[in-house]
Structures are given as C-alpha cells and as structure tokens.
Amino acid sequence: MSIIGVECNADRYFFGRLLNNKNLIRKERNDKEVIESVTIRSKGNFSVGIIDIDKNKKIPQNFELINENNYTKIFKNKENCQFLVTIGPRQFEHWINEFLKTKNINIESFDFENFDKFMQTSKSLKPETDIRFKNIIDVVIEKHNTDDNHILKLKKHLEYIIEKKYDFSITEFNKI
C-alpha cells in the first residue's frame, strides 16, 4: 500500500530504502501531482507527499507548518491526517549533497565529474541502475544513523507519521 507520494524516481528509490519498504512509496508525475494526490485524490484519508522545496511550492492554505529545520518543512492538514513534506535547500539532490558535506564526502568521490552530472543522473528514469548514484545512496543509508542530521530526523518523523496515522499528535511529533 503506497501511502507516500514523491515527485521523481530518485526520491522513490531513496525513500523506499530509507524506510525499508519500497511499497510505501509511489511516484507521481511531478510536484503538483504529489500535492493533488495528498489534498484531493486521498479524499481526506491518510496520505503523505514529499516534494522539493524549490520554486515556491503552493502549499494549500488548509495545511499548517508543524516542524521545520534548515532542510525540511513538514505541513499537516488542519483537519485530516494528510502531510506534505518539503526537502531542500532546493531539490532532492541538494538535500542529499548537504548530508554528504556533513560527512566530508563530495559527489566527485563517486566518479561524478561534478554536482550537475549527479543531478542529471538523478533525474533519469532509473537512477538506481547507475552504480555511482546507487553508491551515493548506499553511503547515505549506511551513515545516516551515525549522528543527529536532517535525514535521520526526517526518517524518524516519517516513521512516527506512518505508525500513528490517525492517532497523530503534534506535541509527541515535535518531541522527536
């Protein structure tokens, strides 16, 4: 049962790995489709969408910001158990790169010529078939549990949201 909508294949692959369940993740056509899937097509039922923070996303007015840090903002529908998560500082690739920087690892050490080449690969139809991309994600998955960081924080938040669903408590959530 896929309850988390994402906007690209790289997100689908990464969040499936991060949450240890690729069946939770569905790829939508773009960010607008992710938002529509959560706000309209879910018909008020439990749903989560993860989108890039770039391009001034239009978060619906009936969603309130419940948690944020430099890399992630989490919004909840004021009446339903629907969540929108934005990641950045711009896009998924920047979000991953910021984590790598905290570990003193650069994209070039994975045989990418530069960050733009990494982005290009990430935007492909099956980025996980590129061993360089897969190796980056392997490192992030392996190292995200080693200290407090934005990826570990979002993982814990997503796990709480998925576990609690309709019993979600903003107070408990913000203690994570």
What does this structure look like?
- This protein has 176 residues and is α/β, with parallel strands linked by helices.
- It has helices spanning 9-18, 31-41, 92-102, 115-122, 131-143, 150-164, 170-173; strands at 4-6, 25-27, 47-52, 63-68, 72-77, 82-87.
- β5 and β6 form a beta hairpin.
- The longest helix is centred in the last third of the chain and has 15 residues, at 150-164.
Question: What distinguishing features does this structure have?
Answer:
single chain; 176 residues; six-stranded mixed beta sheet; 41% helix
How would you sum up this structure in a few lines?
This protein is α/β, with parallel strands linked by helices. Helix content is 41%, strand content 17%. It has seven helices and six strands, in the order E-H-E-H-E-E-E-E-H-H-H-H-H.
Number of helices: 7
- As laid out across the biggest beta sheet, the strand order is 2-1-3-6-5-4
Q: Report the structural category.
A: alpha/beta
Provide the β-strand percentage band: 15-25%
Q: What's the average pLDDT?
A: 95
Q: What level of helicity do the residues show?
A: 40-55%
Write the H/E string, N to C: EHEHEEEEHHHHH
Q: How does the major sheet shape up?
A: 6 strands, mixed
How many β-strand runs?
Answer: 6
Q: What general outline do the C-alpha atoms trace?
A: globular
CA(first)-CA(last) distance: 25 Å
Quaternary structure type: single chain
Could you list the spans in which at least 5 consecutive residues all have pLDDT below 50? none
Radius of gyration computed on alpha carbons: 16 Å
